[in-house]
């Protein structure tokens, strides 16, 4: 069957300042190795991105249900964006875990600082359901917002 319904996600692209540093971070975080690194550029790639010119070093990391593309722009020279979690168009990437405490320990052992201590959703948080779901937030070395979730109720996929 032809998939034209936007019901599957292939990858998320994350622009990074230093590809080698990002590869090390995401390989440590996920326990997976990148499948390849390469370079792409030229007028056709620039055109599809809406740019005048482009040269991108990139790496692909395959997870069970989504791929992560790490992109280091060489041309045009990149600028740094900074988003707070509440800003419109800010996004984050969330990793699903079974045990929030084990995952937090792994992050801390790797030297990754959490934005705040993890919480487990309770009725007092205002949710109608999903109690018992645990979340924690942190950033990658370039400030990309990341989350871990141990989902329950409506947050859990079938």
TrEMBL record:
Entry superkingdom: Bacteria
Recorded GO MF terms: metal ion binding; methylmalonyl-CoA epimerase activity
Keyword S-adenosyl-L-methionine recorded: no
Keywords: Metal-binding
GO BP terms, alphabetized: L-methylmalonyl-CoA metabolic process
Start and end residues of each VOC domain: 8-151
Name of the protein: Methylmalonyl-CoA epimerase
Species this chain originates from: Taibaiella chishuiensis
